[in-house]
């Protein structure tokens, strides 16, 4: 019975302990079994039984460790897929913006100039022509001017910036994240229409979610957008995991701080509810 419960325990502890701690437990359990058999039950030193006892523990540890690795790999694949879909969505909106601007420029610089030249030539021709050719040239002149006005209206419409749907991008990101439930409270703000700001916010969310999955036992992550007393705009990300002591930030967090600082904002992390704030000033 002791063997069964001890093997079950090491299978569970594998998901929460480091490999060194797991090996220490297996050694402790095996030595305990050996000493109990020798001094309590007054048996000869049961070396073979102790080795079998340790072997069962080692087998249970290897299987559980393999399961943990597979779960981690699956989570990383799902997270990478969610990040890829979110980046693809933002890139698609960016490309759509650029295509609209390029089309507007081509219509204005090419078609608009040619229509203007045509209108000038038709105007000269209609003034010098005689009937019935003059009336036909007048109709052509009027039609060309109307076409030019439509082109100008179309160019103005295309040059109007297409709004970025950052909420849809973040929803695509959090929809495929494994293990944790993520809530998004999105409030529209003019700064979110900037492609550089939207890209920075996406990267901040991706890094924070990744850190939660790697370093926290959290089951809930909250992403909130809203105004701030000391800044024009604020995004707050926090989870319900165990608060860890503040340490030197890694390359990921330092990179985020640099991204936010380039846009005139700041990134602040606290141990209270594992909270991160990104503010734009």
From TrEMBL:
Signal peptide: none
Keyword Transmembrane helix: yes
Domain Signal transduction histidine kinase subgroup 3 dimerisation and phosphoacceptor, first and last residues per copy: 99-161
Record's GO cellular component terms: membrane
Coiled-coil parts of chain: none
Record's keyword terms, sorted: Kinase, Membrane, Transferase, Transmembrane, Transmembrane helix, Two-component regulatory system
Keyword Membrane: yes
Tree of life domain: Bacteria
Family annotation (SUPFAM superfamilies): ATPase domain of HSP90 chaperone/DNA topoisomerase II/histidine kinase (SSF55874)
UniProt GO molecular function: phosphorelay sensor kinase activity; protein dimerization activity
Name this protein carries in UniProt: Signal transduction histidine kinase subgroup 3 dimerisation and phosphoacceptor domain-containing protein
Organism: Pseudoalteromonas rubra
Lineage: Bacteria, Pseudomonadati, Pseudomonadota, Gammaproteobacteria, Alteromonadales
């Amino acid at each position: 019975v002791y063997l069964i419960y001890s093997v079950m325990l090491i299978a569970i502890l594998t998901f929460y302990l480091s490999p060194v701690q797991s090996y220490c437990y297996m050694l402790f359990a095996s030595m305990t079994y050996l000493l109990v058999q020798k001094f309590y039950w007054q048996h000869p030193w049961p070396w073979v039984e102790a080795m079998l006892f340790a072997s069962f523990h080692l087998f249970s540890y290897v299987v559980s460790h393999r399961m943990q690795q597979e779960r981690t790999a699956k989570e990383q694949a799902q997270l990478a897929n969610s990040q890829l879909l979110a980046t693809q969505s933002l890139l698609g909106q960016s490309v759509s913006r650029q295509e609209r601007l390029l089309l507007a420029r081509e219509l204005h610089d090419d078609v608009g100039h040619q229509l203007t030249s045509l209108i000038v030539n038709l105007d000269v021709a209609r003034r010098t022509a005689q009937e019935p050719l003059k009336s036909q040239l007048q109709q052509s002149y009027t039609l060309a001017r109307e076409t030019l006005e439509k082109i100008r209206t179309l160019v103005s419409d295309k040059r109007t910036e297409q709004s970025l749907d950052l909420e849809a991008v973040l929803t695509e990101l959090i929809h495929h994240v494994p293990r944790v439930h993520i809530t998004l409270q999105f409030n529209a703000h003019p700064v979110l229409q900037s492609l550089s700001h939207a890209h920075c916010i996406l990267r901040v969310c991706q890094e924070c979610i990744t850190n939660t999955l790697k370093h926290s036992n959290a089951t809930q992550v909250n992403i909130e957008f809203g105004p701030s007393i000391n800044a024009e705009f604020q995004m707050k990300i926090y989870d319900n995991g165990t608060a860890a002591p503040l340490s030197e930030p890694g390359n990921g967090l330092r990179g985020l701080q640099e991204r936010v600082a380039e846009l005139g904002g700041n990134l602040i992390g606290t141990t209270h509810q594992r909270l991160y704030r990104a503010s734009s000033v």
